[in-house]
Amino acid sequence: MTTALEWQLATVTAIRAETAKVKSFTFALPGWTRHRAGQHYDIRLTAPDGYRAQRSYSIASEPERTGEIDLTIERVEGGEVSVFMHEVVAVGDRIEVRGPIGGYFVWEADMAGPLLLVAGGSGIVPLMSMLRHRAATGSTVPARILYSSRTYDDVIYRDELDRLKAAGDSFEVFHTLTRTQPAGWTGFARRIDGRMLSDISQAFGAKALTFICGPTPLVESAANGLLELGLKAERIKTERFGPSGK
Amino acid sequence: MDPTNADLVLDGNAVAGVLAEIFGDDLTAVLGTCPDCGKRAELATCRAYTHAPGIVLRCSACDGVQLRIAWTPRGYRYEARVQVDGRFPASG
Questions:
Q1: What residues of chain B lie within 8 A of the CB of A244, using their CB?
Q2: Is the minimum CB–CB distance between A57 and chain B shorter than 8 Å?
Q3: Residue A217 to residues A97, A159, A193, A228, A240: CA-CA distances in angstroms?
Q4: ipTM tops 0.85
Q5: pLDDT band, residue A92 (cuts 50/70/90)
Q6: For chain B, what is the domain count?
Q7: Residue B55: which domain range?
Q8: Is B92 part of any domain?
Q9: Domain-embedded: residue B85
Q10: Residue B91 lies inside a defined structural domain of this protein
Q11: Could you tell me if residue B86 is inside a domain?
């Protein structure tokens, strides 16, 4: 059996464009082990001269899918690993990976809720694994996501979030677009702030189980805002999902 | 912290693989106590500075250094200041 710390050669079996800067890669794993929603894999690239670059990427897929995982990767200008993944990697290529890794930023259906998710940009990825896990297990734990993107076209998993919402199993999605908004936009149109957090979290009161993932400034302002609203620190889990692609 | 530097800061989640490689187990959910301000929190919540030839984990409350890891030709070297119920050897 492959342990989470052993490197294994995964085969890329599918590549999907999510937005102009974001792609999802399906990896078939010879040593697949079930992950927990929110965990990540490390990817390691080795150049012919032995130089190595390594980054962590959150798992986007649900644990219920066996034998393979999806990693959703944002292209970061100058990023050694993300640019290679976007520009060079093709279906059939084999890539060194290890995982699943991380035991803190995880949600499983039996942890209940209500589940409050706050995402900025590609910080949506581990939260999407949680939402897919919730759907796959038939969980009806009330869940809400507040998702901040720059523009409408930068919203990752937009259609799937709409479909999950339409399923009518007490999941709701709230978008905010911070840079530009399309004509007729009815969602939020500013950076996440205390009033927005209050609007979204009010229905759950102070007992929400909260996961926040995004760039550091967003994570810190959202976490502080929710603490001010009376949510318990031990019920707020954070992950800084820097544009370094780490 | 200016916006550019803030963007470069990650957290303990991002170095979970390296920590597990060195210490043999996932440490992100382990509770640690900051020796400077006494904050007790999971190591995942530490700020992680990784854009250097090593890794520094700092307390999310007071910015005090919790753990330093460097790569040398002979492998990892680390210095742990954070107190985690006897899990770390004094140095390595």
A1: 7-8, 10, 50-51
A2: no
A3: 29, 27, 12, 16, 9
A4: no
A5: very high
A6: 1
A7: 5-80
A8: no
A9: no
A10: no
A11: no
